[in-house]
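hey m, so remember when u said the tokens were messed up on ur end? i reran from scratch. heres the input so u can diff it against urs
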Amino acid sequence: MKLPRNAFLSKQWKRIPEKRRLPVAVYATTQILFLLWWAAFFPGALSYDSITYVWHVTTNHWESNHSVVYDSLVWLSLNTIGDLWILTLAQTVAMSAALAYCSVTLRAWGVRQRWAAVAASVPALLPPTAVFVIFVWKDVPFVIGAVLAFGAAGRLAARRARGRQAVRDREFYRTVGLLFLGFLSLALFRNNGMLVAVVAAPVLLIALPSMRKWVLAATAVPVLIFGLLTSVIYPAAGVKTPPKDAVYAFFYADIAVAYGQRPGFFTKEDKALMSSIAPLSHWKGRAANCYNADWAMESPPMNRPLAAERNDELMALWKRVMKRTPDLVVGARVCRAHIAWAIFPGPKELRANTLLSDPQTSKTLFSYLKWNDDIKHSEYRPKLKIRPLSEPLHKVADFSWRAFKVPQLQWLLFRGAIWCYASYLIVLLYRRRTKLKGTLALVSVTLGLQLTVLAANPAPLWRYMIGPIFLGILLLPLLRAKPNFGPTPDPEPSQPTESQRENPDSDPESNPDPDPKPTPTPVA
């Protein structure tokens, strides 16, 4: 990294160890950029979910249909400063640190420092990714966890590529710890986030054969913690479980899709059950779209309390539908996960839904004031709006956000599918060019994010696939990366060398200027 021109800054820069300059530069750059967005949308961008979190924690309506951990952070922010800005500020700090960490991971794979810094800084500059970070959303720490897990998995894989997979030094244990922290964040900040670990685990076990027990611990323990919290600790603490009409909404939507396409397959008893909960015109009409399960659950006309009461009957109907027309049920699930696999948006009427939630203040607090007296009379209601620290800065930031929402760019900036495919291709080309082992680990988190949305997704919302956009941007420099260490075989596990025992923190991965003329080892 080049030294700053200012004399004082140059002096301070020289005090930073050479191997630390890249992450320090990336952290400083991204933090400054995020702070500008944060000031423009102070105290943070809001959505319907943001108001829900505040309602949960200020009226003792704690429920596990959203992340209880994130609700706790909202509660902590409101009860320390009486506002939400400290939470969104913390999110910018955490994301900046995660991006700085990933820049060093890229360097370990042969990416030049300048390009590693650029790639890690771009998400803090682009409006879709930068504004996302300052939303009051559980999805923000979820994505931060994904970025951290990606960086740690890449560090472990780089050890294998360098032939150091058998070395167990402090750096190794720190990396495993950060991998665990990343997957724990994925599990705790989204209710289906533990599926990312379930999908990523076998990929990492294949890519890192000599680290399997550590990888298994880093991926399996977060899943166990999530299960313990949801099944034991949360209920014991008085946190309410989601109502059945919310848990099984996907299944009701499947029934609607099947009825909309093949109503003749439904018996009089089936129709009687359905019509008792919502008019058949609703089941066959708006609810029968395969893109958005939320439309099926609109209340009214859907009698959601009655649906929860008669859930067992509805699930029995779903099983009959699944047996009669499995193609329609599977097709509905794939269609509903459109945001996860399709590059371009679906029907025109769904494009606005894809970009749901602008960083703006809603006069009705996203309809909450129409039905919720707790929020209407809440002492925090004046805080639930954007109060920019700089009006000119807000105007520029808001204009940038809206300009980037142009439909012609939506496939690139608001849909993660294209970045999933780009990531797989980039890593494949890098593997073929360098013959390095362990590169599969670089797409483990991306694959987990994509397949998790494919498995269970209520609507084609952009935030569900924003994680792959961050990771795809980070992987772009691999197209020109030139690792200066040759492909290595997997040696038998051995004890650390004498120099490694004396200096357990030494690690060639973190050295920005390794020996420029190493002797490559032939591929085994």
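this time it looks ok to me. The chain has 29 helices and no strands. if urs says something different then somethings off w ur setup not the seq
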